Amino acid sequence: MALAGSQPAYQEIVRRYQRPVFNLIARIVRDPTLAEDVAQEAFVKAFRNLGGFDTARRFSSWIFRIANNAALDAVRRRHANPVVNANVPEPPASPVPDQVETAALASAIDQAISALRPEWRAAVVLRYEEGLSYEEIAEVLGIPEGTVKTFVHRARKQLADRLAAAGWAP
Asked: SS3 letters for 104-166?
């Protein structure tokens, strides 16, 4: 129905994909305010290009590809790595030690992910946060599946090294 120009159908698409698209973009651009703008830009691009969507493919891969490209364009426009903004919530007034440790680990992981190259960051987010297969990630990023596997492998190695350096070795 969205392909036929139905506004309510497209609103349902935005509702369904708003959070995952924003999360992907936010991980790449590392700035929540910019991520909101880029996500809106990605949905506008998707709406304008609905006629070009190949119904033989997965819609999620198509929308993630648009979002990924928009995010990488935003990073390129900035000509520098954005500042890390880890939005880790404050622990409760009388924190439980496990909660403090979990929040600290979450912050360390977020900082380590933020330090990855944008392409590696996208591959890791799509794989582990969105649960996409290597084949789907390859489609989203427009690269061979083997390259996706390499990106994920190298990103995991770099994440492990950074976490170990921060004191989070297994």
From this structure: HHHHHHHHHHHCCCHHHHHHHHHHHHCCCCHHHHHHHHCCCHHHHHHHHHHHHHHHHHHHHHC
